[in-house]
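PROTOCOL LOG
Step 1. Enter all chains and additional molecules of the complex.
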Amino acid sequence: MQQAQTIPHDALVVGVDVGGTKIAAGVVDTQGNVHGRIKITTDTSTPERTLSSIAQGVRSAVQATGVTMEQVHAVGLGIPGMVDPAQGICQISVNLGWQNVEVRSWLERELQLPCAIENDVSAAALGESIYGVSKGLDNMVYLSLGTGIATRAIINGKLYRGAHGMAGEIGHASFNPTGPLCRCGGRGCLEALAAGPALALRAQDELRSGKSSLLRDLIGKQPLENLRSEDVFEAARKGDALATKILREAGQYLAYGIYLLSMSLDPQIVIIGGGLAVEGSPLIEAIHEGVTRWLENSPIFREMSGLNLLRLSSLQHDAGITGAAALITSAH
Amino acid sequence: MQQAQTIPHDALVVGVDVGGTKIAAGVVDTQGNVHGRIKITTDTSTPERTLSSIAQGVRSAVQATGVTMEQVHAVGLGIPGMVDPAQGICQISVNLGWQNVEVRSWLERELQLPCAIENDVSAAALGESIYGVSKGLDNMVYLSLGTGIATRAIINGKLYRGAHGMAGEIGHASFNPTGPLCRCGGRGCLEALAAGPALALRAQDELRSGKSSLLRDLIGKQPLENLRSEDVFEAARKGDALATKILREAGQYLAYGIYLLSMSLDPQIVIIGGGLAVEGSPLIEAIHEGVTRWLENSPIFREMSGLNLLRLSSLQHDAGITGAAALITSAH
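Step 2. Run joint prediction.
Step 3. Record the structure below.
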């Protein structure tokens, strides 16, 4: 683990949350306030172009804040993939199409600023643990629920990486060996059962097999492939039986994952973040129902976790940006 | 976490592994050598009698080593249950029938020696990490497989307890919601599917339903209830189909547990210890087969864990005794 550098109290750091479709960045002060938030499209045509997108995102955030690059102390980045923070290398990123990309040295040369990199979910977990709902707690699990699914844990007050920086890749654990193929090559992985694209695919399949649903009205004359997880949420909110069933089943799988992680890690809380962590959404309701059922059925889970295990992220999209900045400003 | 006290290089500590049926104890030197190993029956009729059994075990080990109580520096104990090491209290132990027993103060008064307590599997994990196959590794999972099933992890070089000392109670995670009732009150827990007593119960049920098997010859005219897991192992070694099937199924469940723990914790190795961790046994073979199948099916698990994830305990029964002693002699 890298130690926090000694940095001035009023230092500004750019935090970057690199995604497969969008790059979000902001200038973060040492209190975790985010200034000049920007979002740009990720160019994933070549690794060099992706790195250029990132550099562009950093410059745009600095400009939007009304400061100069000279006033910025350093840059922290969360990257969707397997990352070696000590070497500054991303070993593999399916979303970015990267293999062994020397992220840190490239960006440090380009931006003339010190850079630090981490896995994106690790960065978001760090953000939540320093500035969010788990502030001050020593043991928590952060579940990122969106296009992908992964967890990262804060253990004994520190980000837990595991032997290969992969601790928490529960999104690629199979919960149904005869389930749908996952983009990782496995079958029935939690991500292939319950992440955003899985919900959309599941709904498309059900419509193709002739099921009636409000979803047909929502997509109208568009091809079925255009149906997105947002449509499934909207239909469920309007009481559609098929959409409700799809979200309930996904919620059950996610609840089982949370239950297993809790039995393994005995956290104080589990925070749900990411694009699908929306208060009052039918998926979040289904997760709550599922976890409640496990609490009822397992005396030991109940004794450990009590009834207040689950929390929604309070930082939402800023978890990734503030956590990336905290790679520079905190001992993690 | 308690810090290691400064103790002399030649100090002797008594390590005690308290079980529901037997208490094992030994005098341990600072190199982890065990002297004067003894094993006595646990009197669980009342908490006070159990504590007396433990004190008796300590005195017997000291006597067997040929030293005096005055030469002993302190006593460390591993207790099967939920333990608060800071308060010296066992909150609950199903095996011992304890609730909120003030273990440390009672034993310190009785033995006139400083005492430290921990959960028994935590102590064994600590023993393995200091003296066993995972010596020097920062991240490992220890799976105790015997009358009960539980895991404990060494994370970033330290014993990981979780928020309530329950991290690793995967033995009480349900892997089959319609499975057999577990003694914890849950249903289909890993322990109810794959621990020693579960294997025996499963075999008894199969024989009751009329299945033919070598097991019938092994128990002869005894009542079916006398059939033990040892009989299932013996029958499987002799090629019995029913016994082999029972162990293979249990091995599949255990392999799934190891796979899930590995995806959650990304350990360098997983050590299998406890009474059923016997080299070449059909259960261990089945676990290996099951884990190999998950490695084949999950590219991410393969990338993380490689092919040398599983190890058998090298310390066997001494893991608990040396780990209990290490509660005194190591910063853990």
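Step 4. Note key features.
The first strand of chain A starts at residue 12 and ends at 18.
DSSP finds eleven helices and 13 strands in chain A.
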